[in-house]
Amino acid sequence: MALLSSLSSVTIKYSLFIFNLILVISGLVLFCLGIIIKGVYTQYERLLDDQYLSASSLLISAGILLFLFAFFGCCGAIKENRCMILMFSILLSAVFILELATSITGWVLSDKADALLDRTLNATMHEYENSTDLRQFWSTLQTKLECCGVHNYTDWYTVFPSDKLLPLSCCDIPYDVKVFNCSASSGPFLHKLPCKEQIGVLVENNAVTICAAAFSIIILQVENYLF
């Protein structure tokens, strides 16, 4: 009987340790994802609400707290310290709430990205000629994403109504041409993709990743609690 009790105690001890070790790794994953997504959003922060950067910061915070609290739980399990394990359980509940808030935020932001980008891209385009920063921003954007205009190249006709020329960043400039003007007749050199669609894919996919990552960890925690 004593042997069975001892085996049961050891099983519970190492089950708790493994559970907490999984959460430690999960915390690192959330942290790394948050850093990557924040880097993507920072590139386009001129076009996004602060909520997008806040969502990635929430993911980073959830990852850090989960890592620290789960590590605390690992120590409690190995040392068989009931006080540490109880404290870990209470702290983990707070992380659970933060993860839930992060997941909901990611889902909401993925839904509103389209309308937001339509508004901010058009606003920055109409200020193109009045701002050196915006000219540089659009040049980098269209060159990097190989896109042109918000919906297509004709959006630039509202900025340059007289000559129908497009920014050079709307085209791949041929190496063997000394003088080159980018226009609708530039054929294969013209970027055909809309910038809104290109950025939208990045923004929405990362918002969905925030939602999915946080929700996955929530499911993992619930399953382990039930187990």
Automatic annotation (TrEMBL):
The keyword Transmembrane applies. One of its GO terms (cellular component) is plasma membrane. Keywords: Membrane, Transmembrane, Transmembrane helix. It is a multi-pass membrane protein. It is found in: Membrane. Belongs to the tetraspanin (TM4SF) family. This is Tetraspanin. It comes from Rhodnius prolixus.
